Each structure stands twice: as structure tokens, then as C-alpha cells.
Amino acid sequence: MSKRWSLRNIILIALIAIVCGVIFWLTSFIYNALTLILTPIGLAPAANDISLGLWIVAGPLAGAIFKMPGVAIFSEVAGAVVEMFLGDQWGVMNVVSGLIQGAGAELGFAVTGYKKYGHFQLLMGAIFTTLITFTWDWFKNGYSSYGAGLLIFLFIVRFISVWIFSDPIPMAINKLLKRSRAIA
Question: What is residue 134's predicted lDDT score, i.e. its pLDDT?
Fold first, then answer.
């Protein structure tokens, strides 16, 4: 793919964001089901951490494919806007979440000055995304009131979920797209 913001790339990034926006919207149903299942055993907060990886896939995927600064944030925010317009339960806060989640992926690519876009950068994006989103939930969702054991558990679950959808899945999709010659 060309490493510049051409009309073709913007359209392709927007298509990824639209597909991911639908995935984000569907993830809301998974999140709600997990919350129902986990509430009786006192682990309702884990629903967010288990499902978070699905909500962050747009940034790492678009970043790994297009290899340009700003793509991760743009695709994550655009996907969040699609999710919002599909009518999910968080409304405009989706856009704020998209900015926060996209920033983590973007920082993973920025670590090497946007010169490399491999497993290391995607791992760094997963680490940054986990740290940033966990900090956000500390303030927004009351994680500060949880005990140390639950916090450690939630952090580990979140990192695993985020890493799966930040590294192996985007890399596999990228490889499939290259093999099919859908991208260069």
C-alpha cells in the first residue's frame, strides 16, 4: 500500500472502519451477555476486559495494513462513529473511547518513528492500549474501588484480549489480504 493519505487509501481505511464499527456494535451484545453471566459470581467488571480486544481491532488492523501515521486513531474513531450511529448503548462516548483506544495502537507504531509495522510494534500497541484504557476505566468505570486481586485479574484479562486483537489477528488478516492480492 502507498504510505500516504491518498483518496484510495482513505476509502479503504473507511471501509475497514465501517466493518469494524459493525463488529464494535455486535460486541455490545457480547459484553451485555457476559455481564449477565458474570454478575452472579461477582465478576461483572470482567465483561469489559474480556471483550475489549474486539473493540480495539480497527486501529492495529488499519495501522498494520496502511503503515501511515494517524491511521490507527482515524480508523478506531471512524469505527466508533459507525458503532454510535448503529445505536449502541454508549452514544457519543464511543467517540471518546475510540480516541483513547486508537491512541494506544498509534503509540505502538510511534515507538519506532513509524518506520516498522511488525509484531513488536503491535505488541507495544497492545501494551499502551492496555495501560491507557485501564487508566481510563480507573476513573470512568470505578476500577479505583476494586481490590488489588481483582484489579490484577482484570488487567491480565484485558491485556490478553487486547493483544489477541492487536497482533496475531491483524497480522493474519494482513497476510491473507496480501496473499489474495487485495493489497500490495
Answer: 98
